[in-house]
Amino acid sequence: MKLLKNKNLYAKLILQLLTFLIIFAQICLAAADDIERIKKDLNSSDWKIRLKAVENLSSKRNEDAVNLLMEVAVKRGENWPVKKKAILTLGEIKDPKAIEILLSIFNDPFLNWECPALKSYTALALGNFKGDARVVDALIKGMKDRELLTREASIRSLGKIGDSRAVPHIINLLGDKSAAIKLSAIKALEEIGDDQAISHLQYLAENDNDSLIKREANASLNNFRKHKDYR
To answer: Which of 3, 21, 173, 177 gives 20 to 30 Å between its CA and that of 40?
Structure first.
């Protein structure tokens, strides 16, 4: 009787395993079919269909999706909305394999002439990759770009990454003529939380001619006090 029960238990376990394997195989086949459909859509002559294909890749987050997104990101002649979405999605997925591609796009000297905004979106995407010195170095350089959007995005991403090596470079921007740059620099310094920024923020809070800048600098100092017990 006991032997019969054991046989029944083994049979149930084997049946469950087979069921799992069948379901897993069906999922894999469906995923493969889905990728093939996306590949087909990426070759459509309609850029809106290609954009939708890129949006569909954002939910995949696997090697096939990353590879396709990288291909779109560097594809010559691709519409900017499609490339922008591919670049931002690579940043969201955070696959280290994408860093090289994103850096090559960001460092392309011709992008500013073709589409200034694309470089700024690449800066935002790079802000999702912490712990890579190449990214920090590129973004520090990006803070001197001739395009305001790129400079601002570079500052924001450096704040998000939180590497203290960027702090002296960001501090230098507290005297920038652009209010947008100064506000981004204040926020980035607050996010990084390095003490060397405190005296510079104090000066800004007390002496800047713009009331908004003074208010944001004060708010940043308050957060320094809360998070680092500054006196």
So the answer is: 21
CA distance linking residue 152 with residue 154, whole number of Å: 5
Helix or strand holding residue 217 (H, E): helix 211-228
Q: Are residues 135 and 103 in contact, defined by beta-carbon separation less than 8 angstroms? A: yes
Question: Alpha-carbon distance 200 to 176, whole Å?
Answer: 13
In this structure, are residues 129 and 158 in contact, taking their beta carbons and an 8 Å threshold?
Answer: no
Residue 4 has a CB neighbour count (10 Å cut-off) of 8
Four-CA torsion 158, 203, 199, 141, nearest 10 degrees: 30
Which residues touch 66 (CB under 8 Å, ≥6 apart)?
90, 93, 95, 97, 98
Interacting residues of 205 by C-beta distance below 8 A, sequence separation 6+: 214, 217, 218, 221
Question: For the chain, which domains are there?
Answer: 40-161 (1.25.10.10), 168-231 (1.25.10.10)
Q: pLDDT tens for residues 83-123? A: 999 999 999 999 999 999 999 999 987 765 566 689 999 99
Helix (H, G, I), strand (E, B) or coil at 46: coil
CA nearest to 56, candidates 89, 87, 102: 89
How far apart CA 200 and CA 9 sit, in angstroms, is: 72
Q: pTM for the full model?
A: 0.81
